[in-house]
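Handout for the seminar on molecular recognition.
Each group receives one record of this type.
Step one: identify the two inputs.
Step two: read the structure output and locate the region that could contact adenosine-5'-triphosphate.
Step three: write two sentences on what you found, then compare them with the reference statements printed after the record.
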Amino acid sequence: MITVENLSKTFPGADEPVRALHDVSIDVGAGSLFGVVGPSGSGKSTLARCVALQERPDRGVVRFDGLNTGSLDGRRLREARRQLGVLPQRAELHGERTVAGNVAAPLELLGLDGPQRRRKVGTLLDLVGLTRRAGQHPADLTPGQRRRIAVARALATGPSVLLADDPTAGVEPEESGAVLAVLDRARAELGVTVLVTTPDAAVARKLCDDIALLEQGSLVESGNVLSLLSDPASRTAQALLPAIETTRTQAAAYDRTADVVLIGFATVGALLPEATTRFGIELATIGGGLTRVGDTPVARFRLGLRGERADAALAWIAERGGHVTQQGLGPQGIAAA
Ligand SMILES: Nc1ncnc2c1ncn2[C@@H]1O[C@H](COP(=O)(O)OP(=O)(O)OP(=O)(O)O)[C@@H](O)[C@H]1O
């Protein structure tokens, strides 16, 4: 759907040029929820603005369904922009208009008549869960509710892509889940492809199918979130998986230790107890924990194992989809090292 190929962008800086993007390539599939994640200044907004066709890259290409947007002239560029709904980082609502009026504003520009507008606004307010607020003004809403209205407004013209630049910025943590849920609904119910930028790995963990990590304008890694978690050495795994905090004393109580990443209901729930009985070993989780990536449960545990068939049990767990790493020996191994 959206392909970004070798994008580079440099801005003039006070002392020297600022390299905002350097040779960044991403592939955003139709209907996916794609997260661009990185610290402040890593180039996320610049990438979003290039994809929104608001900024021209110095080098590289942004393609929509294969079409090179860099080659489009004025009229065709405007047509391409109409496919895009943009939620800027500081989306301003019209303070003097009602919530419904704010969502209706882009439809008025399109020239939709009253009944059509009302129907469309009703559907969008329902999508963002704020139907009962239709007659209120933005000042009466919380920052999270205002952000949800801005999402409804960005979706009003029926874009096929929604670009949301840091959608939870300035939103209280207890409200950010509702903002993310609205983006998820936009994808599920309207079939919109959603590209989100965020400095918050937890946003990507809760929302995104695919992810690109940026650092100082360069792409560190990208791909399907669950696939990246299968490689515990990946930066995505380090950012999203539960931390392992185990003392040497805890580890020393076992013959060997191993770290394991388990993905999915069946794997998380059943694999470890079954390995224990099948191989007649003692197996305990001595670190790590359980989280969720979207709706999928994902665990990273440090295991302590005791028993002759511990190695065979680990091999069996790995064969059944557990990602086993960092196998270490117990007290004897540590003493010898
Ligand atoms: N119009 C501009 N003129 C000059 N420098 C710019 C401009 N836009 C961005 N930059 C610089 O480019 C770099 C990347 O900025 P960008 O806003 O894309 O990062 P970001 O990851 O979105 O950061 P944040 O999360 O803080 O919004 C930064 O060093 C920034 O100061």
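Reference statements: The chain has two domains: 2-237, 242-336. The first helix runs from residue 44 to 51.
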